[in-house]
Amino acid sequence: MDKTGLILMKIRNARTIIGVVIFLTIILAMVSYVTLTGSLSILQVLLNGILMGGLYGLMAMGLALIFGIMKIINVCHGEFILLGAYVTFWLNYIFSVNPLLTLPISFLILFLIGLPIGKFLMNRSLKFGVDPPLLVAFGISITMQGFMRLLWSATPRGVFMRYETWVLPGGIAVSPMRLMAFVAAVLGLSLLYALLTKTLPGKALRAVSMDRPIASLMGINPDRINTLAYGLGAALAGVTGSLVAIIFSFDPASGGLYIGRALCVIVLGGVGHVLGTLAGGLFLGVAENMASFFLGDAIREGVAYVIFLLVLLFRPTGLFAKYRAF
Amino acid sequence: MRKEQALPLILFIALLILPFAVKGYAVYLLYMVFLYIVLAESWNIIGGYAGQVCLGMGAFFGLGAYIAAVLSFNGFPPPLSIFIGGCTAALLGVIIFPTFRLRGVYFAIGTLFLPDIIKVIILNLEVTGGAKGFFLPLTFALDLTHWYIAALILASITVLFAFKMSNSRIGLVFKAIRDDEDASESCGINPFKYKILAMMLASFLSGLAGGIYAHQMLFLEPHGTFKLMWSIGPVFMCIIGGVGSIIGPIIGAGIFTALSLWLVTLVGEVDLIVMGVILIVVILTMPGGIFGALSKRVKLKLS
Description:
The complex is a heterodimer of chains A (326) and B (303). Chain A is an all-alpha fold and 326 residues long. Chain A has two domains: 1-38; 45-314, ABC transporter involved in vitamin B12 uptake, BtuC (Orthogonal Bundle), CATH 1.10.3470. Chain A is built from 13 helices and two strands. Chain A has a two-stranded antiparallel ribbon. In chain A, helix 3 (41-70) packs across helix 11 and helix 4 runs antiparallel to helix 5. The radius of gyration of chain A is 20 Å and the shape is globular. By secondary structure, chain B is mostly helical. Chain B has helices at residues 3-21, 25-49, 57-73, 78-95, 105-112, 114-123, 144-167, 169-179, 181-186, 191-217, 222-225, 228-241, 247-266, 271-285, 289-298, and strands at 134-135, 219-220. A two-stranded antiparallel sheet of chain B has the order 1-2.
């Protein structure tokens, strides 16, 4: 079959058509809004949403990786993100390291923290059934919260990077920090994609997530892959945390905010696609910013939860995924 | 009167006259233990017997607290408003029926966000005072003894109810759903209906506990009333004590109070660390909780 035939087959897919129609409707609605009101504020909201969305995608990627391979929902992901944020904060505070240079450091530190947790707690609890891993992750989450509060106090922290806001023609402002976070997030996701498709451990990871017994017949040790996946997931959370530290202020109890958004994104994007996760993140970012623009800033925190429940109830495969993850 | 009935009765009467003999922090600690027993036993109905791990019990507790406080403020007698608060919480338990389509971990995650949704709603309402919080006037202030006795009676009713339920037909149906949902469905049980019933019972009792808490505190604030502890606490107590037993949650409530209220005053803010470590160790080493481990070793026959 030639190339055009393939494309036609893809277009015939009903889901694609619905997606295109929804996308065009949104574009049309936005164009008409801009022409009717004559203000470009909606484009500003859209841009903010997209810049935020990249970070949300990276936030969810670690969770999606762990879920895809170990089939557990790592509730302590929010605390891993906070640990990464604290790494950046302290390196910046004590040694005044540029926050962007701390990304690999927090990747490494969180990888080293994640490996033993995955090996000694998660792998062991997996043998008890479905609920124990979730509750163990819950226990880790409380413990880490307690440690962070004990060691670094409950004071809200943040990293300050002083850059002028760029103003594009038309009065649209771009925050350089958010742009940097977006670029870093997309770069990180691309690196992960390369790791998963090109390298041997990445291929082993994907094999285990597709079919565990067959993968172990092919000579892959599933327990070791579990540990690797957990470490990698934690490391991705650490990188996310470093970016979170640049943009938001954080304190030991704010992990719940991030885990909520990350869960929303993987429910939207499905598990197993790097691209799907990125798309889910962008969707959530835009939806959150649109909702807080039109309906008031108070509901910003609620948007992720509402989307999460709606998708879980009415379209459990996610908006972009091909197979059912939830 | 048989021996098994006499012991709880003596304990109940002893606890009833205790606040007239002892004063101070011990009474408050026991009052909190009773509230926690209500929360733990109600979580035990949905999580222990029906096997649906619900991580959002704080939503029902907080909603009951807010409804009771607002109604009392507007002239309802406190017992009636506490009751209506419980009923509203039960209504919320029914409203979330779509989440019962989800199974296992997905149900847990689906209910994890329930407190946050209710919190966002309450933050944006005029009646509840939003982020400022909601004050009950000092005319509602009563001696702690009253609320101690109210909490004791509620806890006793809850434990008695859980005991009667665990041996009744409904309790057996819940256990059947927990053990195998598909098999129980093939036996002619409608799991969806019974899950809603379990949720309704659990949320009603949590709502009542919330109402008592609101009237004793006289002040409610969204972030504190819907904080994660009210949701994790009951799960923690049941897991530590022993899921699916009557005595387990009571042991768990005692340990939880000792850790969260008493340890903090002794050592400092290490309660979260100790709780987390205990939770992990108990899950990994004794799946039946403390009660399960004890009854296996001593062959207790209590439930």
